[in-house]
Specification:
Blueprint lengths: L4 E5 L6 H13 L4 E4 L6 H16 L4 E5 L2 H7 L3 E4 L6 H8 L4 E5 L4 H9 L4 E4 L17 H9 L4 E4 L7 H7 L3 E4 L1 H4 L4 H10 L6
Parallel strand pairs: 1-2, 1-8, 2-3, 3-4, 4-5, 5-6, 6-7, 7-8
């Protein structure tokens, strides 16, 4: 599966049924990639939630990627894992996942690191934060021009992340982003399905 379009990243929601409903709405609106990310959950809750979300995604032709926790991704049979720069060796994750699952890596604002992880068989890379993020307000900022540079050097998909809204996403797509990763502007929207549709429409050619 090639990473493209809307990339939905889950909020830190403690209620599994609420989270499943939120993800169900995002997928109904067109998201084909969902990353399960919960920085505050216990291991038991992460297992419960990831398992529930995998069932949601399996029934709706969407991929579930687990943030940080390679062991959890393998345990539940998720479609892949996403690693930060401090979350473990890319080569180890690639070997553990095998060739049929997705491996994504955060590269912050460093194109050379993205080139390196592409050599280690990452399937996509993520850059950001491009805008001020309420989820990670202290994140290192990346210039939008970095996306254009990355597309010239990489053959794998490039994901943009960090403070992305319906008002600024088009600029990132125009600069070369294959996918936009969204948390707050999607899951904090009054109607998640409609918000997902609007984000997905940004990738469709203008008639």
């Amino acid at each position: 599966m090639r990473i493209q379009g809307l990339y939905a990243i889950t909020p830190d929601e403690a209620d599994t049924s609420v989270l499943a409903d939120q993800v169900r709405a995002a997928v109904a609106g067109g998201a084909r990639v969902v990353q399960y990310r919960n920085k505050v959950a216990s291991p038991a809750l992460r297992l419960e939630q990831a398992t529930a979300l995998l069932a949601v995604c399996r029934g709706r032709d969407a991929a579930l990627i687990v943030n940080d926790h390679l062991d959890l991704a393998l345990e539940i049979g998720a479609d892949g894992v996403h690693l930060g720069r401090e979350d473990g060796a890319v080569a180890h994750a690639r070997a553990a996942l095998g060739p049929g699952r997705i491996l994504g890596v955060s590269c912050s604002n460093t194109v050379q690191y993205a080139v390196d992880v592409q050599r280690q068989q990452a399937d996509y890379v993520a850059f950001g934060s491009f805008f001020l993020s309420g989820v990670k307000p202290d994140a290192v900022r990346a210039p939008i021009a970095l996306l254009t540079q990355a597309k010239q050097l990489l053959s794998i998909p490039v994901v943009a992340i960090g403070g992305i809204t319906l008002h600024n996403a088009a600029e990132l797509i125009a600069a070369g982003a294959d996918s936009i990763a969204v948390i707050s502007a999607l899951f904090g929207a009054p109607d998640i399905r409609v918000a997902a549709e609007h984000f997905c429409n940004l990738f469709r050619p203008v008639p």
